[in-house]
Write a structure and sequence with these properties.
Number of domains: 2
Strand content: 15-25%
CATH class of the largest domain: Alpha Beta
Largest sheet: 8 strands, mixed
Strand order of the largest sheet: 3-4-2-1-5-6-9-10
Shape: globular
Helix content: 25-40%
CATH architecture of the largest domain: 3-Layer(aba) Sandwich
CATH superfamily of the largest domain: Glycogen Phosphorylase B
């Protein structure tokens, strides 16, 4: 089986958890004997091939106003034009066509389509290849991927997003199988009429277990207590909300913030933070950061499709405070491995932090149960089994004639895919630019 993976970015360009998971998936399937090829956007015009850790990686120059892998926020008009063209970027089809002609894959796995647009579905279908679409975000409902606007998570598509996604649901009928990284994200898209003909699956993202994490949680003897956040620094991630709530508590504790964001927003956050209480660490190694804190906070104000960082926190024996939105409740169980709060009740975040600051016994109890609660999500081989089974099933289902299945990993057991509901299952332009 030869698989072409298509995504907005590929390492070393990491836009978020999707790129982390994709690299682990690609390298894992390659170890199992599958032939894998990557197609991602890149900073240079044209199509460029490099071999990266034994994997052919094609990078295509984005046929749009700018490459979206940047910490600089482009002007509003530039963002408007970018999103408008990204409705259906026909200019990107030629890269898909060229890579398919060169590599001759058996199946194509789409991931984040930002920059590529759904034009890729048409090109892959024109080549007669089956498509498996993995849902890491809400791009198919919202040009900004997040369905977050004016400080709140959108409960439904606004008129502008509906207009910019007109015809997308119908186009998704070309997809043979769809994989949601959470039940939440799959159901959100299916409820909007997407993937009516596709077999539907849920495969939670996994992170490899670090042997050093196997130890029982250790009590830190040094104080003050340390709360931590690691991830993208953006409004929808709730970083500003976290800083505000933490500083209002007036407790003997520290808040460490790791990660990067748009430079203008980073400056806003640093301006509101008390440097005696809040530290901005920039990029950090995740495991090392987790070992330096006592409580992980995931204060997402948007409906996070999954939340891999919450899994990583639990794997490191940390109690996790998270919002009860999106896919996070599929990881964090209230008062079992963490505490849940709600952006609809802003003080609930501060209350959760105060509770864990005061109640050391509860903090220790949640920490002691955290790792065991996410063990299935630490099993990379299990995730690879699930993906491989779905790919084989999809490929077999789209062959017009029976062919022997490729023996790319004979020792791998055939598993039934993890499924969900498989059987029953210009003024406007200014508003978009202002919202972005």
């Amino acid at each position: 089986m030869k698989i072409l993976f298509l995504n907005a970015f590929y390492a070393p360009h990491i836009g978020g958890g999707a790129e982390v998971i994709l690299r682990r998936l690609v390298e894992g399937l390659q170890r199992r004997g599958c032939k894998v090829v990557i197609l991602a956007t890149g900073p240079e015009a044209g199509l460029h091939l490099q071999i990266q850790d034994g994997v052919p990686v094609y990078r295509a120059g984005l046929e749009n106003g700018y490459w979206h892998y940047t910490q600089q926020r482009p002007p509003r008009l530039a963002r408007l034009v970018w999103h408008y063209r990204d409705r259906y970027n026909a200019g990107m089809r030629r890269y898909v066509r060229e890579v398919i002609a060169r590599e001759k894959p058996d199946i194509v796995v789409g991931n984040n389509l930002t920059g590529w647009s759904i034009s890729t579905w048409d090109e892959v279908s024109a080549a007669g290849l089956p498509i498996v679409q993995v849902l890491h975000d809400l791009y198919l409902l919202c040009p900004k991927d997040t369905m977050y606007n004016h400080g709140k998570s959108c409960q439904r598509q606004c008129g502008l997003c509906s207009a910019l996604r007109l015809g997308h649901a119908a186009a998704s009928a070309q997809v043979s199988a769809v994989i949601g990284v959470s039940r939440f994200v799959l159901e959100r898209l299916v409820d909007q009429g997407y993937f009516a003909r596709a077999r539907q699956h849920v495969v939670h993202n996994c992170t490899p277990a670090n042997p050093a994490q196997d130890d029982t949680p250790k009590k830190r003897s040094n104080f003050p207590l340390r709360f931590g956040y690691i991830g993208t620094l953006s409004e929808n991630k709730g970083v500003g909300w976290l800083i505000e709530q933490f500083q209002r508590l007036g407790i003997d504790a520290r808040l460490d913030i790791a990660g990067r964001g748009k430079l203008d927003y980073e400056a806003e956050l640093k301006a509101m933070a008390d440097p005696a209480k809040v530290s901005f660490l920039g990029y950090c190694d995740t495991d090392r950061f987790m070992r330096s804190i006592d409580v992980l906070v995931v204060p997402s104000r948007w409906a996070e499709p999954f939340g891999l960082v919450a899994v990583e926190g639990c794997a490191n024996h940390l109690p996790v405070i998270a919002t009860n939105m999106g896919g996070l409740p599929e990881i964090i169980r209230d008062e079992f491995n963490g505490l849940l709060c709600s952006p609809d009740d802003p003080d609930s975040l501060g209350t959760a932090m105060l509770w864990l600051y005061i109640d050391g016994a509860l903090r220790q109890k949640l920490a002691s149960q955290a790792r065991a609660s996410v063990l299935p999500m630490l099993d990379m081989e299990r995730m690879l089994d699930q993906y491989q089974a779905i790919l084989r099933e999809t490929l077999q289902g789209t062959r017009t004639h029976h062919e022997p299945e490729p023996a790319d990993h004979p020792a791998t057991p055939r598993l039934e895919p993890v499924g969900i509901r498989q059987a029953d299952a210009a003024d406007a332009g200014r508003r978009l630019a202002a919202a972005d």
